[in-house]
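To: structure subgroup
Subject: Chain for Friday's discussion

All,

I'm putting the inputs and outputs inline so they're searchable in the archive.
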Amino acid sequence: MSDLRQPLYIAEAWKREGRDVAMATVIETWGSAPRPVGSHLVIDGEGNFEGSVSGGCVEGAVISEAMDVITSGAPRMLEFGVADETAWRVGLSCGGRISVYVEKIV
């Protein structure tokens, strides 16, 4: 992936365009996880996104939460794991767990 397609560069470009932007970052993993610590997903106020923190339905849940973070300005810590009923509902069935921090970029 070229540097210009990386989520951090995209977030910067979107902010320069005047978009509201949130960044989701994988901060911790346990067991089998689809993306490593440090993976990013950037989301704008219209629901456009680039990057990845998990894939599948988990990513959809993170995008939805990011939209709320953009509106409220309050960061959130999200956790998904096989032991959590929510994780099964959103598709993290790989046996691992992930923590994702979502913050508005100002």
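Points worth raising on Friday:
Residues 3-105 form one domain.
The first helix runs from residue 7 to 16.

D.
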